[in-house]
Design brief:
The strands form 4 sheets. This protein has a 5-stranded parallel beta sheet, sandwiched between helices. It has a 5-stranded parallel beta sheet with strand order 7-8-11-6-12. Strands 9-10 form a two-stranded antiparallel sheet. The longest helix is centred in the N-terminal third of the chain and has 32 residues, at 110-141. The radius of gyration is 33 Å and the shape is extended. It folds into 4 domains: 7-136, Response regulator (Rossmann fold); 161-313, P-loop containing nucleotide triphosphate hydrolases (Rossmann fold, 3-Layer(aba) Sandwich); 319-395, Helicase, Ruva Protein, domain 3 (Orthogonal Bundle), CATH 1.10.8.60; 407-451, Orthogonal Bundle (Arc Repressor Mutant, subunit A). Strand 3 (52-56), helix 3 and strand 4 (79-84) form a beta-alpha-beta unit. The termini are far apart. It has helices at 15-27, 38-47, 64-74, 89-97, 110-141, 151-164, 180-189, 208-216, 233-236, 252-264, 290-296, 301-307, 324-334, 344-352, 358-372, 385-395, 407-425, 430-436, 441-451, and strands spanning 7-11, 31-35, 52-56, 79-84, 102-105, 170-173, 198-202, 241-245, 266-267, 276-277, 281-286, 310-313, 341-342, 377-378. The protein is of the alpha/beta class.
């Protein structure tokens, strides 16, 4: 049954017609169940699921319209094809209004019903594929695609959910590759604006003149090459959201125009005389410190305050190493080689590495390593050279000079550093810090006293 093209229920009171349809469709590769009247057919529908129902209209006990109504109540996705020897245009219209896929008059040709059923299954399969695609797009735009279980990421998720419900402007900050566009997308797709457009643009990729046209549009003849009126991205994002990535790169001359949009939702196209009004939520992002640009005069202070109503900072990957195993699984499962896994020692190296390119660098590393590794287990030797070298550099011991070295002082400094790191990670909770270092609380407290750590 698993290898059939689909499951079909035939409801037909004429035995010969019922058996002909059953034989024909079984030869085509369908799994067939048949019923001799409407009540029997509806009993099957209550206890089983069918992809398609072929039902006569004129039948004892319950007619085809009752069957159609029951199908749409129990299984709306099931396709219904109705057949009759006493059809009228009115009954055909009524059947289609009630949700029938098609209406066939007896006598019909075998090829006719074969083709109709084939087309019905093609439509059903396409509909299911589109539904899956929509779910995939929806999930990739929400929080599902932002991976993390660390305390910092859980705090980020809580903030995104809360902020998404408002219309406040948001400034997302974080290092390159940390996932700013994913956060912006989640803010839109978790918001009341999710049914409208989410428009994105990287302000650093356009020269000044072109960026203005991209954002606000232009009128025909406003500059050389303006051969027609063009709608800008702010108009395209009306009632939705716009994401301005690398906002710190926006030329000073355009900042006043953006400020006006934020203040009253109005702007003019390049070369235009009339105001265009829009309702757009603005989400921006930068990997730079805009406050420094404000201090230097390259970024308007009033615009900065309008953009920074709700600041969201994405922590760098090196500050949340606990998320790395989860991210590795995520990227491996996305790849075609989802059976491969990182060895414990390789995982240790990856969790120690600083990841200057953050999640993007990690994803690129996974893709490259999976491609170049033959075995199922990825070992330290399979990792990029820079990761292995960073680990070796971390293992280097202080050199012993001509006059020797202060061994006791060096060891005390190492011990002091680990005590401070444990306290920092435990947020000052001494019992938790002692547990992290595998020390008894009494020993831990003694060492704090010894080194004067409060």
């Amino acid at each position: 049954m698993e290898n059939t093209k689909g499951r079909i229920l035939i409801i037909e009171d004429e035995k010969s017609m019922r058996e002909v349809l059953k034989i024909l469709l079984e030869e085509e590769g369908y799994d067939i169940t048949s019923a001799s009247n409407g009540l029997e057919g509806m009993d099957y529908l209550k206890n089983d699921i069918f992809d398609l129902v072929v039902t006569d209209i004129k039948m004892p006990k319950a007619d085809g319209f009752e069957v159609l109504k029951k199908v749409k109540e129990i299984s709306p996705a099931t396709i219904v094809i109705m057949i009759t020897a006493f059809g009228t245009t009115e009954s055909a219209i009524e059947a289609m209004k009630m949700g029938a896929y098609d209406y066939i008059y007896k006598p019909f040709k075998i090829d006719e019903i074969r083709l109709i059923i084939q087309k019905a299954f093609e439509k059903k399969n396409l509909s299911e594929e589109l539904s899956l695609l929509r779910e995939k797009i929806k999930s990739s735009c929400g929080l599902e695609n932002i991976v993390g279980k660390s305390q910092k990421m859980q705090g980020l998720f809580t903030l995104i959910r809360k902020v998404a419900q408002s219309n406040s402007t948001v400034l997302i900050t974080g290092e390159s590759g940390s996932g700013k566009e994913l956060v912006a997308s989640a803010l839109h797709h978790l918001s009341p604006r999710k049914q409208k457009n989410f428009v994105t643009i990287n302000c650093a990729t356009f020269p000044e003149g072109l960026l203005e046209s991209e954002l606000f549009g232009h009128v025909k003849g406003s500059f050389t090459g303006a051969l027609y009126n063009k709608e800008g991205l702010f108009e395209a994002a009306d009632k939705g959201s716009i994401f301005l990535d690398e906002i710190g790169e926006m030329p000073l001359s355009l900042q006043s125009k953006l400020l006006r949009v934020l203040e009253n939702g109005a702007f003019r196209r390049v070369g235009g005389l009339n105001d265009v009004t829009v309702d757009v939520r603005v989400i921006s992002a930068t990997n730079k410190d805009i406050s420094e640009a404000v201090a230097s005069g390259s970024f308007r202070e009033d615009l900065f305050y309008r953009l920074n109503v709700v600041p969201i900072n994405i922590p760098p990957l090196r500050e949340r190493p606990d998320d790395i195993p989860l991210l590795l699984d995520h990227f491996l499962n996305k790849s075609s080689a989802n059976t491969k896994r990182f060895s414990p020692e390789a995982l240790r190296l990856l969790m120690k590495y600083s990841w200057k390119g953050n999640v993007r660098e990690l994803e690129n590393m996974v893709e490259r390593t999976v491609l170049l590794t033959d075995g199922e287990i990825i070992l330290p030797a399979d990792l990029p050279e820079e990761i292995r070298k960073a680990d070796e550099a971390g293992k280097q011991l202080p050199a012993i000079g001509e006059e020797g070295m202060d061994f006791k002082g060096i060891m005390e400094q190492i011990e002091r550093d680990y005590l401070n790191k444990a306290l920092e990670k435990a947020k000052g909770v001494k019992t938790e810090a002692a547990r992290m270092l595998n020390l008894s609380f009494r020993s831990f407290r003694h060492k704090l006293y010894k080194y004067g750590i409060k």
